[in-house]
Amino acid sequence: MTGAVTSGGPAPELIDGAYAYELRTAAVMHDGLNLADMAHLLQLVADGIVPRAASVELAGALQRADGTAWSDFGYDAAGGEPYNSRERRFEAELGHGAGWLHAGRPRREATRVAFRLHLRREVCMLVLAAARLAAALAERGREHRATLFADHTYLQPAQPSTVGHYLTSFAYPMLRDGERLLGVVAWLNGSPCGAGAVNGSRLVAEREGTAAALGFDHVIVNTRDAMWQVDGLIELGSTVASLACAQTSLAEDLEIWASEEFGYVELGSGYERSSVLMPQKRNPYALSMIRGMAGVLIGRLTGLLAVQKGPSARSDSLIMAYGEVPTMVDEARRTTELTAGVVETLTIDEARLRETLDAGSTQATDLADELMRRCGLDYRRAYRVAGRALRILADRGLPAGELTSDVLDAAAVEVTGGPLAADPGDLGDALDPLAVVATRSAVGGAAPAAVDEMVDEIERRQRALVAAAEAHLARFLVAETALRERLRALARDGSPDGGGSG
Question: Is residue 386 assigned to a domain?
Answer without folding.
Answer: yes
